[in-house]
Amino acid sequence: DERRGEGEPPIAVELEGVGKRYDGAVAVEDVDLAIREGEFFTLVGPSGCGKTTTLRLIAGFEEPTAGTVRFGGRDVSGVPPEGRNVGVVFQNYALFPHMTVGENVGYGLRFSDPPGDVSRAERVRELLDLVDLPGTEERDPESLSGGQKQRVSMARALAPGPDLLLLDEPMSALDARLRERLRVQVREIQRELGITTVYVTHDQEEALSVSDRVAVMRGGTPEQVAEPRTVYRRPASRFVAEFVGDNNVFEGTVAGEPGDGENGDEDGDQEGPVSVPVDVDGATLRVAVGGNDRGADGDPGIGDRIAFCVRPQHLRVGRTENGLEATVESAEFLGETTRIHLAWGDRELLVRTEDPLSGTVVVGFDPADAHVIDVDGG
Ligand code: ATP
């Protein structure tokens, strides 16, 4: 998904080999990212993976200890934040309580005049309209809800007409319902302005729902950079498979050639996706290898170690193909579905069903719903 076709917008922000160390502690390392103009790009990952540091390096609050940050192809080393034409929104709003809402938004214009031919007051009004808080200039920020405060802080960040909007966990102080509303609003504002946006969150669902592309980070380095659908359907690693949504990851040994023992064509030479048998803890499971799995490095060969994943909604109760006999351990009712924890030997399996389950069940999956994530560690 790093293809760059003819019609792609130009690169707005590029990080090449970027690293940041603090007294020997590595915060980020080997970060290569190319964010396109107009793109909503999200850095997502667990606590401490380097998301905030990466954002701060882009903003210019920190200078890298290795590598280069470029804006529109220009090295921005040594350029302070106020010289980078970026708008930044923080988790804790950072609104001034002794100023009105309008004064807070106007504060965004402290380094520059309003863009276009408008007065500061008009610009403040425009921005409050944009974030759907018209007429709130005289309000005390303390009288606003958390979601409204965050929209004021977006208005302030956008007031000078920045080229780049940076948001660091802007929703994390809000309750779940407000977060869902605000993320839709943030996405609408971003689309309306067409502004290149880099967004930091630890919430994978939020990342998938708002972004054009996401970088899943681990230990200071992006592990996969792709569109949300690709990250979900074709995770590049076990870490991504388990971080993005629920997943069942299996590891085993390839026990036959692609197509061996498959219905129909027996010579293992047919076109399109085929499956291989994989021994996993005494069970033989068939796993599709096709498309990108059959790349330059070839198909998995007999004896190769292989890891693959199957989403809980693809483990079907009562299905005998790739059937595993498992025992129901616990269930969580989630409204639309129930997430059931099964024990298969000493492994846990997750399935999703509409009906409650108990006792011993057989769950199976279509080989095509298994995604190979790793062959012999490669
Ligand atoms: P969180 O979601 O918890 O904020 P994060 O993914 O944003 O995590 P960072 O804040 O970028 O992660 O931190 C990455 C690593 O760098 C962490 O181990 C952190 O302790 C370390 N780190 C960050 N800032 C500093 C600093 N100023 N001095 C020393 N270590 C730092």
From TrEMBL:
Pfam families (UniProt xref): ABC_tran, TOBE_2
Query: Per UniProt, what is the membrane topology?
Result: Peripheral membrane protein
Q: What is the E.C. number?
A: 7.3.2.6
An example GO CC term for this entry is:
plasma membrane
Return the Acidic residues bias intervals. Answer: 259-270
Entry keywords, A to Z: ATP-binding, Molybdenum, Nucleotide-binding, Transport
The record's SUPFAM superfamilies line, in alphabetical order, gives: MOP-like (SSF50331), P-loop containing nucleoside triphosphate hydrolases (SSF52540)
* Classification via Gene3D superfamilies: 2.40.50.100, Nucleic acid-binding proteins, P-loop containing nucleotide triphosphate hydrolases
Q: Where in the cell is it found?
A: Cell membrane
Q: Which reaction does it catalyse?
A: tungstate(in) + ATP + H2O = tungstate(out) + ADP + phosphate + H(+)
Give the principal location in a single coarse category.
membrane
Q: Which residues form a coiled coil?
A: none
- Quick one: where's region Disordered? 250-274
The record ties this protein, via SMART domains, to: AAA
**Domain ABC transporter intervals:** 13-244
Q: Describe its partners and assembly state.
A: The complex is composed of two ATP-binding proteins (WtpC), two transmembrane proteins (WtpB) and a solute-binding protein (WtpA).
Q: What does this protein do?
A: Part of the ABC transporter complex WtpABC involved in molybdate/tungstate import. Responsible for energy coupling to the transport system.
Give the record's family classification. Answer: Belongs to the ABC transporter superfamily. Sulfate/tungstate importer (TC 3.A.1.6) family.
Instruction: From the Swiss-Prot or TrEMBL record, give the protein name.
Output: Molybdate/tungstate import ATP-binding protein WtpC
UniProt source species: Halorubrum glutamatedens
